[in-house]
Amino acid sequence: MLEKVRLGQTGLMVSRVLMGCIPIQLLPESNAVRLLRYAYDSGVNFYDTAHVYTDSEAKLGAAFSGAQRQNVIIASKTMSDSYGKTIEQIDESQRRLKTDYIDLYQWHNPETNFEDFQHRRGPYQAMQDAQKAGKIRFIGVTQHSVKRARFAVESGAFETLQFPLSLLSSPEEMDVSFLAAKAGMGVIAMKAMCGGLIEDGRLPFAFLNRYPHIVPIWGIKTAGELDQFLELSKHPEPFTNEMQAEVEKLRAEYGDEFCRCCGYCLPCPVGIAIPQATRVTTMVKRGAMLDALFTPEHREKMRKIDDCTNCRTCVSCCPYHLDVPRLLKEQQEAYVKMNAERQDR
Ligand code: SF4
Ligand code: SF4
Fold it and tell me: Where are the domains of the chain?
């Protein structure tokens, strides 16, 4: 069986392989259910989804609505900005998941400075009320920004933090994980495969396995991918000097290219939605939010890149020094091609 670790002060004992349920959106329901049950039979007990991941919750509901439910930990999340919408989404997620409780409910990347959110009637109060009503067990938060993640930890309001942590993470990002662990929070790594830039799990797994306070989520679409993580978890490889050299090489290769969605570059004076636009091809490759990526609204968002004046305000604000205008152009070209391919089908 897989090793289990404690998820901070939630006390939940989770397998070191957490399954990210974005990619199951790409599978027909019967295949998704087969994959989820295979993961369950292999000892994976934590599944991370979100209200916004189209049919991901419903597929989890189809896989685990029976006797398995009590043996799995289901994490979902909301991007809602109001009390009422959050309650509606919790109720809808429960219907889709065919369950009357969600183990961990996360406020997904809130754009708040965390100074006032505990004192107004918004998503956080909705989660607290849902917790009191027994609909959710623990309240967590996800963040992409170092600054807001620090505020979230310091607020003391959340029991887990989900944050981008991978071999491409900066020292500041790794520090956030230590801070959260010190505060007793469970630390969940999102984008453990560097947001889809890396396809083989061996190196990302060995890198993160050196940090026992971090539990990574792996976006898994096939039994073969799952087998690799199961094997790595049962027989972890030591992180060698050769691996460190590979990490340095990847940092040199992707250091300029990897948008962390932190939003520091916003607002763009001409209204380009930079974080969504700079990652669109990676998201399509991973099957993330496909329905939302090929709508007329999103096409317009990508067309807006034509309005870029090359003022480079975004470049000066980006903590990762990305050449944003060039990335935007490259993403736009790839998106136009993908869009045409989808329309030809
Ligand atoms: S360089 Fe382009 S994308 Fe960046 S802030 Fe200026 S107009 Fe917006
Ligand atoms: S371009 Fe830079 S500042 Fe903007 S969202 Fe991406 S990583 Fe953050």
Answer: 4-244, 274-344
